[in-house]
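Hi everyone,

Forwarding the result from last night's run.
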Amino acid sequence: MKRILVIGAKGMLGRDLLPILQSSQETDPSEGKEVVGWDIDEIDIRQESSTRSKIERLQPDIVIHLAAYTDVDGCEADADGAFRVNAEGTKHVAMGAKACGAKVVYLSTDYVFDGKGKEAYVESDSPHPLNIYGHSKLRGEQYLQERLEDYLIIRTQWLYGRHGKNFVSSILRQAREKSTLTIVNDQTGSPTYTVDLSRAILALIRHKSRGIFHVANRETCTWYAFGRAILKFSGVEGVSLIPISSEELGRRALRPSYSVLSTEKLGRETGMRLRPWSDAVKEYLSSLVVESSESRAG
């Protein structure tokens, strides 16, 4: 039986990924997967010795490493903390996995690129991060490449899902509180639904894929266009949106202006093409309505 360990299991992506991995075993018992989820209460990846020993004791076949310091602006103020988690923590996971011959699947980011081009980034493009978060995640990538032969690095972007703070929930909350919202209109990417990303991770594992892959929902938009779509699809009226520049927003960390990821390699490897982001966000918003109705009924 294969044993899969998910580190960061209680995060936004982890909480969607675990049931998808578990249900895949139920629908296809020949896969024989046992799925174990750990979070900060079970493992602190900043601690080298305990991280290595806990992974070695479990003896997983695959470690899916989702744990990260994801507060991009917070990373600028706490570079040491960002590198301890995103870089050194990833090294510790890699060392524990190597000791028991496990594959590591590592979630990385579009922020390893500077976004100065106008074409979608392919996996072989040279990274050049603009901020501490991107630098720390890239160092995590490098640690895997230096220490393991069987690794899978998945770069993704603009994540949203039902189980954590994200741009969609933030826009809906602000729309209830304000009549006017300002949203950045000079950053372009692909909003990615954690459910779709989870299915792609499963597909890459099934295909025994190795190396670097870009995974995101198809088609692109700016944050402003994304926000406008969220309000439209939610039926929210009476809220004005004002486009602003990144400079006007004044965030601590620089963001890439065009960080679109090419997913052609994913398609060639697995035959999978993620749906357009607009279709995915419609489904996500519908799930929120159903969840709210069930909550009121309960």
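The first strand starts at residue 2 and ends at 7.

Cheers,
N.
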